[in-house]
Hints:
- The protein is elongated.
- It is an all-alpha fold and 136 residues long.
- Helices cover 82% and strands 0% of the residues.
- The chain has 2 domains: 1-67; 69-126.
- α3 packs parallel to α5.
- Residues 5-126 form the E3 ubiquitin-protein ligase synoviolin-like TPR repeats domain.
- It is found in: Membrane.
- The chain crosses the membrane at residues 46-66, 103-120.
- This is Synoviolin 1.
Amino acid sequence: xxxxxxxxxxxxxxxxxxxxxxxxxxxxxxxxxxxxxxxxxxxxxxxxxxxxxxxxxxxxxxxxxxxxxxxxxxxxxxxxxxxxxxxxxxxxxxxxxxxxxxxxxxxxxxxxxxxxxxxxxxxxxxxxxxxxxxxx
Length: 136
């Protein structure tokens, strides 16, 4: 938990520094945005910040829709996620000519929706233990 908080705080600080530096250099909104989108290190920092925001959104939506996850659900999610990330990396090699921020955003959305589909599937498949009725 502490490591996650440090990564989030570091990402926020780094993003703030990059945007402030770009604004300091260009002094206007539009040239600042152009500078940020044309600079590879700036885009990398913005991608990291976007990943952090997607992670936070996923945690929030998971709490809202599923509450506390059971250990089995978490294990299934992590196991399936590794396969999905591997498939995504292979897809990136096939579609490397179309690699753009929009493309990355759509693949991130795909992984996000897959994770929630798997969690919903695990919840539907879960059968709570039956309790025997009390006889008075």
